[in-house]
Structures are given as structure tokens and as C-alpha cells.
Design a protein that fits this description.
There is one protein chain. The protein is of the alpha/beta class. The chain is built from eleven helices and 15 strands. It has helices spanning 42-48, 123-127, 129-140, 161-173, 188-197, 205-209, 228-237, 261-266, 276-283, 285-300, 321-333, and strands at residues 2-8, 11-17, 30-39, 73-79, 89-92, 103-107, 111-113, 152-155, 176-181, 201-204, 219-224, 243-246, 270-273, 309-313, 341-345. Strands 3, 4, 5, 6, 7, 14 and 15 form a seven-stranded mixed beta sheet that branches. α3 (129-140) packs across α4 and α3 (129-140) packs across α10 (285-300). The longest helix has 16 residues, at 285-300. The radius of gyration is 21 Å and the shape is globular. The mean pLDDT is 91. It is found in: Mitochondrion. It catalyses: a 2,3-saturated acyl-[ACP] + NADP(+) = a (2E)-enoyl-[ACP] + NADPH + H(+). Residues 1-20 are annotated as: Disordered.
Length: 347
């Protein structure tokens, strides 16, 4: 039987239904996939709370309610598309595919294929590529914010998956990342963990506000996933002519930042948005799949290591255990000091 974690209000319910199949009369260019793993991302919480502009595109055949999940890794089981064959590993190209389920019939155009050379990648690692390692790579190679070895950058949400991939990728390029983490009673173990990954420095928000421990070299780029007060702190740390890139809205969709003439005229800072999906569209299919293959190989050869995650195995979870794990993930995400990402192991 197939399973889907479908939305009920601001929570979800695990439902069971027959495994779908591609009928003989299926139109061309469709694939039946079996999802192997899917992370629970911040954007998923925003979708559940109707705070995100993009909604799930698919519904549960049992309850006819939306199936959340924007990210994951799936194995092709059958295909009417010449682009996919049984055994291919795929990532979502489109957002809103409803990856919190074990099986799905999807248009071939909504998927990206991993090269056969990385078929040994761990499903948990692969599930973190699309919204984690790939985004980190794009941020470091964005033509609008060119970087070179020795440059200092500052990054908020320092314990996030994207930030932890950013550290590792920056280290390989000689870029020096300064991470900002939320205040907590004992930040030293978290700091030590992030420094070991390759961070140049790790500061709490209070330390940034006090002007402590910032490097003597100018900070030319701020990558902010929080906005609000945290964004203001990052903007204040930039050298004249620096660039501020808005990556996410962890402070909420209604958060705001105060900009003054000091930012725009005296210091001549630039403020830029970042949307990963838009960058991938501009890159095109061939270049995107090549980049994903490159990142996947970095997992396989050990160059990239995933952050600590909490794996919840649907195949062994007892009644109500998956729903409970989701509620716990939502509550932890509301906390003051970050959380460990939950990843569904689906099949």
C-alpha cells in the first residue's frame, strides 16, 4: 500500500491507499516514482500556515486534501517518457509536488534526473540537495555577488542546513564565512561544531549587536535567511559598497527592516532578493542537471557532509508516530535556538 501525509488544517494526517500505476493509455511523458526520503523544511511550515505564495499541487486520493512537501528524492518505477527509465533517481524540478508520500505519478517535466554515476548516494543525503546544498552553491556562485578567495561574508540562521552546506563549500573556495546564530543559554558547543566545519567565526546575535569578534577585513556580502532585526544587524556589519541578499523569511512574512540614507547613500549598500527556483530556470535544464550531479558526487566522495538530522522511518513507525514527529518538528521550529531538521525515510 502507498501512504500520504495529507494536510488537515495546520497539521497533517497519514493516510493509506493503493499504490498507483501508469495505465496503458497514459499520455506520454509521465513517470511513476517511489519517494525514498523527504525533508521537513521551513517552507513546509509556512505552507501549512498559509504563509507561502505557492501551494501544494496534489491531493491525497483518500481525503482529497493537499499533500505538502517541496523536496525529496524519488526512484522511477515506470515511465512513458523517453527521458526517464526505471531505476533513475530524481529530484523535484517544480515546487509543490507533494513529496510527503511514498508514490506519485508526475509529469516528466517536473523532475530532475541524477546521473547514474551517483546512484550510490544515500537517500537522506540526496533529499537535502534541492533545497540545501544546491541553494548554498548558487548563493556562492551568484553572478550578482561575485566572490573570490579571501573574501569575508556573513550568514544568518547559522545552524540551518543551507548555512552548514555554505560553510563547507566556502571553505573549498577559500571564502571566509562568519555565521550568526540565535542567542541561547550555552552557545559554545554549537559554535565549536560550526567552526569545525570551516566557519571563520561564529557569533550570537547579541555579539553582533555589540560589535564583538568581527574580522578586521571588510565583510562584502550578507546572506540573510531571517530578516527583521537580524537582517538589520547583518546590514550594519557590511563594509561600504557591500551587498545584502535576502534568502529567506524566518522572522515571518510580515517582518520588516528599517533602511536609512546611511545604508543607501552614505555606505552605498545594495539590497538584492534571491529565489533559487528563478535561478534554476535561468540556468536551463542541462546546466541544472550537471550542477546537481556535481553536488551529488561531492556527497558520494565525502567532500560534503550532511548536518545532523532526525530520521523518521515510515516503514517502522507505529500508529500516530509520523504525525507526532511532524508536530514536534513544528514546535521546535518555533523555538529560540534552532532545531535539527526532520527527514522522512519513506520506503
Amino acid at each position: 500500500m502507498a501512504q500520504s501525509l495529507a494536510q488537515t488544517g495546520t497539521t497533517c494526517q497519514l493516510t493509506t491507499h493503493p499504490i498507483p500505476s501508469l495505465p496503458a493509455e497514459s499520455p506520454p511523458d509521465y513517470v511513476l516514482v517511489r519517494f525514498l526520503a523527504s525533508p521537513v523544511n521551513r517552507v513546509d511550515f509556512m505552507v501549512l500556515n498559509n504563509q507561502y505564495p505557492l501551494k501544494p499541487k496534489y491531493t491525497s486520493p483518500t481525503t482529497n486534501t493537499p499533500i505538502p512537501g517541496f523536496d525529496g528524492i524519488a526512484l522511477v518505477e515506470s515511465s512513458t517518457s523517453p527521458l526517464f527509465s526505471p531505476g533513475d533517481l530524481t529530484l523535484p524540478r517544480d515546487l509543490g509536488l507533494g513529496t510527503w508520500r511514498t508514490h506519485a505519478i508526475l509529469p516528466a517535466s517536473s523532475l530532475l534526473k541524477l546521473p547514474p554515476s551517483v546512484s550510490t548516494i544515500s537517500p537522506i543525503d540526496a533529499s537535502l540537495i534541492r533545497s540545501g546544498a544546491l541553494i548554498a552553491h548558487l548563493l556562492l556562485t551568484n553572478p550578482s555577488t561575485p566572490l573570490k578567495a579571501g573574501d569575508h561574508i556573513i550568514i544568518s540562521a547559522g545552524t540551518s542546513t543551507v548555512s552548514q552546506f555554505l560553510i563547507q563549500l566556502a571553505k573549498h573556495r577559500g571564502i571566509k564565512p562568519i555565521l550568526v546564530i540565535r542567542d541561547r543559554p550555552n552557545p559554545e558547543p554549537v559554535k565549536a561544531e560550526l567552526l569545525a566545519l570551516g566557519a571563520e567565526a561564529v557569533l550570537t546575535e547579541s555579539e553582533v549587536e555589540a560589535g564583538l569578534l568581527l574580522p578586521k577585513q571588510p565583510i562584502i556580502l550578507a546572506l540573510d535567511s531571517v530578516f527583521g532585526k537580524t537582517g538589520e544587524l547583518l546590514a550594519a556589519s557590511l563594509a561600504p559598497g557591500g551587498k545584502f541578499v535576502l534568502v529567506g523569511l524566518l522572522a515571518g512574512p510580515k517582518a520588516s527592516m528599517q533602511l536609512t540614507t546611511q545604508h543607501l547613500f552614505n555606505r552605498q549598500l545594495s539590497f538584492l532578493p534571491f529565489r533559487g527556483s528563478e535561478h534554476l530556470k535561468r540556468m536551463g535544464d542541462e546546466q541544472t542537471e550537471s550542477l546537481i550531479g556535481e553536488i551529488a558526487r561531492m556527497f558520494v566522495d565525502g567532500t560534503l557532509k550532511r548536518p545532523r538530522v532526525k530520521v523518521v522511518d515510515w516503514t517502522t513507525a507505529g500508529e500516530g508516530e509520523v504525525e507526532k514527529a511532524l508536530k514536534e518538528a513544528v514546535e521546535l521550529a518555533k523555538g529560540e535556538a534552532g532545531h535539527v531538521k526532520t527527514v522522512w525515510k519513506l520506503t
